[in-house]
Write a structure and sequence with these properties.
By secondary structure, this protein is α/β, with parallel strands linked by helices. Helices cover 49% and strands 10% of the residues. The chain has ten helices and nine strands. It has helices at 26-39, 43-47, 70-92, 137-143, 150-169, 172-176, 180-203, 211-221, 224-232, 245-258, and strands spanning 12-14, 20-21, 57-58, 63-64, 101-104, 108-111, 114-117, 123-125, 130-133. 46% of the residues are buried.
């Protein structure tokens, strides 16, 4: 990606290096975290991490605004790009976009949905409208999931921003009343919304040759069928929560090619 003079978002909360004292997530929470990581769950939607109780406290206040380090600058610019995209889309539909806050952390973090851990992967919490990511996840994306590249990294953030859009538009409420099939449609729509952002990023000349292939590789790598085959040696479609690799690729490409959120109606599609 080529951000050039792209602004950095100030909606970043840097909790890296902040120690946590007291309490603990407990054995049950750790088990949930491991399963969440293997299957790609978003704790705020699929596993209701908010039920976990913790007495962790941060040892000092978190820094606010775009971090100075290279990766901190990168994610803050990606976030700013999503803000520009969704602000314009909402404005065109007579609405005002309220951007989420991106929280950077290491190992463990306290959210309004409960305690998050690195093993959970990136997640969105609707209760505080914040995205959470331990940047160490990008190492796994590159090595374990074989999906390197800066656009693959940006896709991860754009997907979580997609959940925020769902929250603002009321779609998120469907997840609270649904099952795994509803979860799959939620996640595929977030993939499509990530593609909508990618479409606008391309129009703004932010993409390099091969960037789209990086995102498609990431979508393929974190499909439920691929992850289940790797972790348990078999595929059980009834337990899918995010969709197969083919589904994730198809819906990301749908948003990427059209740039229109209305084309991301995974709930109205008879066969996702």
């Amino acid at each position: 990606m080529e951000f050039g003079n792209q602004r950095s978002s100030s909606n970043v909360e840097d909790r890296r290096g902040i120690g946590m004292v007291g309490g603990g997530i407990g054995i049950g929470g750790i088990a949930v975290a491991v399963v969440a990581y293997l299957l790609g769950f978003d704790p705020g939607t699929a596993i209701q991490v908010g039920q976990q109780v913790s007495t962790h406290q941060e040892s000092r206040p978190a820094a606010k605004g775009a971090p100075a380090d290279e990766m901190g600058q990168f994610v803050s610019k990606v976030l700013a790009s999503t803000e520009d995209t969704w602000t314009e889309i909402f404005r065109a539909n007579g609405r005002q976009y309220t951007p989420p806050t991106l929280v950077l952390y290491e190992r463990g973090v306290r959210s309004a949905c409960g305690m998050g851990q690195t093993a959970m992967g990136p997640f969105y919490c609707p209760n505080d409208q914040k995205l959470y990511i331990d940047l160490a996840f990008y190492n796994d994306l590159r090595t374990r999931f074989k999906a390197p590249g800066d656009f693959a990294q940006a896709y991860v953030i754009a997907h979580e921003v997609g959940h925020h859009v769902q929250n603002l538009t009321g779609t998120f409420q469907k997840m609270r009343q649904g099952d795994n099939r509803m979860s799959v449609r939620m996640e595929l729509q977030a993939d499509c919304y990530a593609g909508v952002w990618g479409h606008q990023a391309a129009k703004a000349n932010l993409l390099d040759p091969g960037d789209v292939d990086e995102a498609l590789a990431a979508a393929t790598a974190i499909g439920d069928d691929r992850l289940q085959q790797q972790s348990q040696g078999r595929v059980t479609p009834d337990s899918f929560t995010h969709g197969s690799s083919a589904q994730r690729v198809r819906w990301f490409k749908t948003g990427m090619e059209s740039g229109r959120p209305k084309d991301c109606d995974t709930f109205g599609a008879g066969n996702v």
